Every structure is written in structure tokens, then in C-alpha cells.
Amino acid sequence: MNAKFVDTFELVNEGFQKVFESLFPGGQAELILSEPDDIANSGVDIIAQPGGKKLQRLSLLSGGEKSLVALAFSFAIYQIKPSPFYILDEVEAALDDINLQRFISLVHKIRRDSQILIVTHQRRTMEVADSLYGVSMQADGVSRLISQKFSEVTVGTA
Amino acid sequence: MNAKFVDTFELVNEGFQKVFESLFPGGQAELILSEPDDIANSGVDIIAQPGGKKLQRLSLLSGGEKSLVALAFSFAIYQIKPSPFYILDEVEAALDDINLQRFISLVHKIRRDSQILIVTHQRRTMEVADSLYGVSMQADGVSRLISQKFSEVTVGTA
Amino acid sequence: MQLKSLTLRGFKSFAERTILRFEPGVTAIVGPNGSGKSNISDAVMWVLGEQSARTLRSGSMEDVIFAGSAARPALGMAEVSLTLSNTDGTLPIEFSEVTITRRLYRSGESDYYINNSPCRLLDIQELLSDSGLGKGLYSIIGQGRLEEILSSKPEERRILLEEAA
Amino acid sequence: MQLKSLTLRGFKSFAERTILRFEPGVTAIVGPNGSGKSNISDAVMWVLGEQSARTLRSGSMEDVIFAGSAARPALGMAEVSLTLSNTDGTLPIEFSEVTITRRLYRSGESDYYINNSPCRLLDIQELLSDSGLGKGLYSIIGQGRLEEILSSKPEERRILLEEAA
Ligand SMILES: Nc1ncnc2c1ncn2[C@@H]1O[C@H](COP(=O)(O)OP(=O)(O)OP(=O)(O)O)[C@@H](O)[C@H]1O
Ligand SMILES: Nc1ncnc2c1ncn2[C@@H]1O[C@H](COP(=O)(O)OP(=O)(O)OP(=O)(O)O)[C@@H](O)[C@H]1O
Ligand SMILES: [Mg+2]
Ligand SMILES: [Mg+2]
Predict the structure, then answer these.
(1) Is the dihedral of CA C56, C59, C61, C64 positive or negative?
(2) Angle at D69 between CA D65 and CA D70, to 5 degrees
(3) A5: number of Cβ within 10 Å
(4) What does the pLDDT read at residue B147?
(5) Sign (positive/negative) of CA torsion A18, A23, A25, A29?
(6) How many CB atoms lie within 10 A of CB A128?
(7) What is the pLDDT of residue B83?
(8) CB contact at 8 A, B97 and A158
(9) Is the CB of B51 under 6 A from ligand 1?
């Protein structure tokens, strides 16, 4: 139904703009309908302008900037329709230290109402966790797990 | 000419196996002709088996393993036909600490005869550099450079 | 609804029966390259009904069964079970705890269970359809797949929004 | 043959004339997300003759000209110069130092220079054809592009090998 889609679109758009601004101080972004005259079939496009820069096509953004825009879009949807849990597999790989901190703040926003599994190689992301699972594979080609609550473990090598 | 391609193929194959074994202790890999009965038109396929594991299709490899296989292939070509310089843009992003060290050893192999520009966020990769260029962008949306020889700079924040 | 546990047996590199128990909040999964972290994420997608082998980095569904290693022979079956607490009644079923199980044999035969009662894949999909865990699984971002949101077609992004409606 | 320096002027985010001087060995390029590191790599590909806008993350070649920012107007031209030492005679030209320059105007007009003499793109391509810096530029691995070697077609990998022959 068109009305429902438009409502969802406006809610997600609003959330997307807020999350984007938290990730890109001074920046602005929005979602637009790819075909505003044909709402029944229109797709959704993303417009994003980091702070101080000129609005250009998404492809010109840097690796880290693209990650942040994609995270803003995903998290905007998560806020509209929370899932009981999320699995994020190395989504912060392209981020510098400052943006990693901003990503971690995003994680804090959704952790109250949902469980989050984060696969990561980054120490600072591990520090946010309530519990840790270590995965290892020995010469027999079989994966095994070690579970550790964060209070019991020192984060040594990844 | 077929003969030339076959010679190159065998040289690169040999190099690929050597580099692969340095990145995957106990592992084995090779290049094969996708169409051995039609050498004039045959493509090149990659077979890779990390140590202790069973030989399976490349797509099942992990993110870090795929990076290493691709690096082994690239570096095998570099050894056969060195370039005056290389530019590697965040190629080590998916590697854990141990594999990062192996990647750094690869860099040491080609640095004697070539210049290498490495774009990186990783401290350990920076420590391998003879010189450092810092890139920054202020509120005016313009990129600027700061050059530093490694001896003059402490690697603080990325 | 909360995740309680995930059990893998013969799924990809998890040849031996392995149980992850889940706490509230954030769980970090760490380990060396190739150790099996992303395979855990694949297991969750698979038990929730993922039908595309490609999304699981596989060429065919049979690839998810432990293929053996230098030291061990291949197994004939992969099985994953996911246990959820349902005390808030999110899932339309009369149990406070729900376990979904999926099994695949090398013959290509599949078995599905809800709380150890055999069922069809369709029953699992219907059970999950309103929970946010159903089709599309937008809540799982696989390794290297984050940027797809930007390079995908506008129509595909619309579908993501509609599933969140 | 060695890289001596790279000069950017109006290329992507490098609105102001910027010179990188190269030392032997390893040079690390570091900085925050979006600061311009990968744009430097794009500049090298471009001055060496890259003709695919897509490889430069652009929609059209015009995208490589500084587009302005919140604080500054767009520029009308992008220019990149690469200076190489040729004391070992790798390049078939009678200079011990060779500077390749490429310029693009918003009109779409392009200028090319070898040591400040106007030339065609073809002359630059021929000059570089045996140096390992020519077509294919297998020596530049762009951000996020490493895995393409694995997912590319077997025929494409053959071409990489043939260029290394
Ligand atoms: N059916 C299977 N049988 C046995 N091993 C398998 C099977 N499928 C995948 N594997 C192995 O699992 C490994 C990949 O695991 P996974 O992708 O989970 O690694 P990872 O911990 O996420 O690593 P990274 O940090 O590099 O992303 C591969 O080495 C692959 O050989
Ligand atoms: N023609 C142009 N005019 C002005 N700015 C541009 C132009 N083309 C690209 N940019 C800007 O350059 C920035 C991207 O720079 P680049 O890709 O080099 O970043 P980076 O330092 O590699 O970052 P990361 O660490 O995230 O990969 C983008 O923010 C983009 O807006
Ligand atoms: Mg992984
Ligand atoms: Mg970059």
C-alpha cells in the first residue's frame, strides 16, 4: 500500500538524517524517491554530503565515508523496526579512530533493546562487549569456541 | 604467442606457490589453466588450500584468507615483472595481527627494487615506512599534505 | 524475544557440536583469519531459512556440510539449532522457549523442526514472518557486504524499507 | 626508473597545488577518512592514462576536477604531473628526468605534455608501454579492489599475466 510505504519512508528518512548528522558533524543527507511521480514503483535513493564538502555522487565518497553512510541507513531502519538481534561482521573495518568512536556510540543506541553480535578484529570494538567468544582453528581444520565474560579476560592479541 | 604465455604462466605459478606458502604455512596452492586443451584462449584459475584444511572453492575462504590469496597472486606477478613503483591502498584491512606481519614481510621483499606507496590506517604498517605523508582536510573541503620522514615523527593517532 | 543459544554440528568448519549461549547486550566474536567467525553468522542466516547458497559464500547448499580437513573425513550432515526465548509472545506459538532446527544431508534431503516437531521450511518462515527475523534478514550485515546498500538498485532499497514497515 | 614527484592542482579534493616528493623505499600515506589519500592514488592512475571514469570512482571524467566545497567555488581545470628519473634509460626518450602532465578542462578538452612539450595521450601510452607503468596498471591495487583478482574471470587473469610477460 502506497500510504504505508510513504509513512515508512518519511520515518526512515528522518532517522537517517539524524544518524547521518551524528556520524558526519556539519554534514547533511537525505533519502529521496527515485521516481516521485510513481510512488507505487519508486525506489529509494541516498543523497549524502559530508560537512564542508559539496554534494556529489555517492561513488566519489571515500571508503570510510561509504561505510558510515551505509551504517546510517541501516541503523535508521533498525530504529523504525528493531530486530531482537543484530549480527555485524567487521562493518567497522574501513573506519579511522574518530569514526570508530562514532560507530561505537551507534552501537550503544541499539544495545538497550536488542542483542548484538559483532565480529571484529578491533580492540576498541571488543572493549564495548559484555561478553566475548573466541574462535580458534587448530591443525585439524575444526573450529572451536572459548567463551569469556569480559570481566574475566584481558584483551591480548586478536 | 602461446609459448610466451606458457613460459610466463609457469614462472608466475612457481612464484605464486612460493609466496602462498609464506603466507599460509602448511598450505598449498597453484594456478591452473581453465582450458588446458585450448591454450591460445585459456584463462587462469586459482586453486588454494590453507594448511590443514580441505581443498574447496575460493568463495568459501574467509575475508582475510581471500586477501592473502589475492596478495600472493599479485606479488608473484610483481616478482616476474617488477614495476618501478607500487601503490597499495588499504590492502591489509582484513588481516589479523599474525597475517599482517606476513604481509609486511612481503613488502620487505619488493621494497629493495621498487618504491612502494602504502595507504593505511594501521600503525604497524606505518612503522615499516621510510617516510610518511599525512593527508588532512579542513572545513574548506580542500586536501593538504604534511610530509614527515619517519625519524622525525612519533606515530600518534592515525 | 531474545537469543538464548545457537548449536552448530557439522556446519562448515564446526565439525564438532558447538554451543554458543547468548547474554543480553553486546557479544564480540573474535579470532584469527579463517578460524570460523563468519561461519557462525552464516549458520544463523541458514537456520533462519536462507536459501541462496551465494549469500553463504557457497556454490551449492551442500557446501555448508563439513567437508573434512587434512586430518578428518567429511561429515554426512549439517545441523544448526537456534533457541529463542518467547516470553513476550512475539512468536505466534504457545511456547516460552522456541528452538528452530535445520538439517541438511549430503543426499540433498533437508529436515526442519520447531521444538523438535518436524515441520516444513514454510512453517519456520511463517513463524518468523512478523518478528523481524524473517525474509531479508536486514539485521545481519555480512563481511564485506555493508557497501552493497549504496551500490544496490533504488528498488532493492525500497524493499528493505518495506520489510521494516 | 624512480618516482621523483607528483604534483596535483585542481584534481578531486586537491584544489591547491600540492607536491609529493618521493623517497626510495616505502612511503606511507595516512590520515582520516575522506581526507584525500585514495585521491592521490587516483591521480597517479589518471596521469598515467586511465580512461575509465569508473576506475576513478567517478561517473564521468569531469568528476575529477575540483567541484568546489561549502567554502570554495569549483575550479575549471584539473592537472596532474608525474616526474620520473630516467637515468637507467627505461623510458625510450633522451631525458634523464621525464615529466608527464595531464590536464582536463570542464569543456571536456584535454591537454597532455611530456617534459612540457604538448603531445597526445597515445604518445604517453607508447612511452610507458614497456616500463611496467602502462596499460593495466597491475601495480596499483585500489581500495577495496584486492578481492577482484579472485572474483574476476579466468580470461581477465590471463590478461594480467600477459601484461607481465
Ligand atoms: N564445509 C566446510 N567444511 C570445512 N571447512 C569449511 C567449510 N566451509 C568453510 N570452511 C572453512 O571455514 C574457513 C572460513 O571461516 P570464516 O569465514 O568463518 O573465517 P573468519 O573467522 O570469519 O575469518 P576472517 O577474519 O578472515 O574473516 C575457511 O578456511 C574454509 O576453508
Ligand atoms: N572533484 C572533487 N571535488 C572535491 N572533492 C572531491 C572530488 N572528488 C572527490 N572528492 C572528495 O574526496 C573525498 C574522498 O577522498 P579519498 O577517497 O581520497 O579519502 P581517503 O583519505 O582515501 O579516505 P578513507 O580512509 O575513508 O579511504 C570525498 O569526501 C569526496 O567528497
Ligand atoms: Mg570473516
Ligand atoms: Mg581511501
Answers:
(1) negative
(2) 165
(3) 18
(4) 85
(5) negative
(6) 20
(7) 87
(8) yes
(9) no
A-B contacts at Cβ under 8 angstroms: 33
Residue keyed to cell 570554495:
D72
Nearest to B102 by CA among B9, B7, B22, B17: B22
> Distance (Å, rounded) from C-alpha D83 to C-alpha D17?
15
Tell me phi and psi for residue D11, to 5 degrees: -90, 115
Q: What is the DSSP letter of D75?
A: P
Q: Best of C8, C9, C12, C35 to mutate for ligand 1, by most ligand atoms within 8 A of CB?
A: C12
- Which residue in the block uniquely carries the three cell numbers 590478461? D159
* Mean pLDDT, residues C34-52 taken together: 96
Which residue in the set B51, B54, B96 is minimally distant from C67, CB to CB? B54
Which carries the bigger pLDDT value, residue C116 or residue B154?
A: C116
Residues A35 and A5: beta-carbon distance below 8 Å: no
Which of C57, C70, C71 lies closest to B60 in CB terms?
Answer: C57
What is the edge-to-edge ordering of all strands in the sheet holding D77-85? D18-21, D2-9, D77-85, D97-105, D110-114, D117-119
Q: Cell match 564485506: residue?
A: C144
Number of Cβ atoms within 10 Å of the Cβ of C134: 18
Phi, psi of C45 (to 5 degrees): -60, -40
Q: CB atoms < 10 A from the CB of C46, how many?
A: 25
Cβ-Cβ contacts under 8 Å for A99 (sequence gap 6 or more): A23, A64, A68, D32, D33
* Start-to-end CA span in chain B (Å): 48
* Burial profile D24-41: b = 16 or more Cβ within 10 angstroms, e = fewer: ebbbbbbbbbbbbbbbbb
- C27's enclosing H/E stretch is strand C26-30
- Widest distance between CA atoms in chain D: 49
Closest CA to A122 of C22, B95, D38, B119: B95
The C-alpha R_g of chain C, in whole angstroms, comes to 16
Q: Which of C54, C98, C107, C112 is nearest to C77 (CA)?
A: C107
Residues around ligand 4, an ion, CB closer than 5 A: A 62-63; D 38, 143
Name the residue among A108, A58, A68 with its Cα closest to residue A92: A68
Dihedral angle of Cα B70, B71, B73, B74, to the nearest 10 degrees: 120
SS3 B126: helix
Please give the grid coordinates belonging to residue A30.
537525505
Helix (H/G/I), strand (E/B), else coil: C40: helix
Pocket lining: C36 vs ligand 1, CB cutoff 6 Å: yes
pLDDT tens digits along B94-146: 999 999 999 999 999 889 889 999 999 999 999 999 999 999 999 999 999 99
User: Grid coordinates in use for B90?
Assistant: 588499504
The whole-angstrom separation of Cα C137 and Cα A86 is: 9
CA distances from C14 to A118, B117, C7, C37, C105 (A): 19, 40, 10, 10, 15
Q: Which residues of chain A have pLDDT under 50?
A: 157-158
DSSP state of D102: E
